[in-house]
Amino acid sequence: MTDTAKAGTIMMQAGTLIPESLRVEAEPYWHGWEIIQGLNGDILDRKIRRAGWSFFFMAENIQAMVWGFVGKKTVRRAVQRVLGKVKLSRFNCLEITEISARRFLGFPYVHLSAHSRHFQRTSLLQPHAERSRAEEAAAWCVG
User: Is residue 3 part of a domain?
Assistant: First the structure.
C-alpha cells in the first residue's frame, strides 16, 4: 500500500474499465481503490479523450475532516471517508483537490477536499443504475 495521497492525486476504483490504448500505472490504496501514478487530472483527461472516451468532473465538493496533525494516518483516514462517499454515488474516480492542516479552538485537524471523477465510453453521464451495473460487471471480471 502506498501513502502518496496529496492534492492532485487521482484515485480509481479497481477493476474500472479503461480504454485499451490508455496505459496507467496504479498502486493499491484501500479496499478496491488505487492511486494512479504520474498523472494528474488534466493529463489523464487529455489521454482519455484522445482514446474517444469521456472523463467527467463532478462539481460537488466532497469533504472530510479528521482530528489530529497532518500525517500518514490522519490523511489516510480522511481519504477513506471521502472514498466512502464517492462509492455511494457509483463514480469510478476521485481527484483530491486539497489537504490542509487546520485548527479549531486550538485542536488540530486535517481537512480534505475532493471531487468525484468518472470515465466511460459515452459522452453523456450514465444514470446511477447504469453505473451500478457497470461497476458490478467490472468487479465480476476482476474477481
Answer: no
Residue 5 lies in a domain: no
pTM: 0.82
| Parallel, antiparallel or unpaired: strands 93-104 and 107-120 | antiparallel
Find residue 94's DSSP bridge partners: 11, 116
Task: Order across the sheet with 33-37: list the strands.
Answer: 25-30, 33-37, 10-13, 93-104, 107-120, 54-67
Residue 2 lies in a domain: no
**What's the pLDDT tens digit per position in 42-59?**
999 999 999 999 999 998
Question: Distance between the two ends of the chain, CA-based, in angstroms?
Answer: 19
How many domains does one find in the chain? Answer: 1
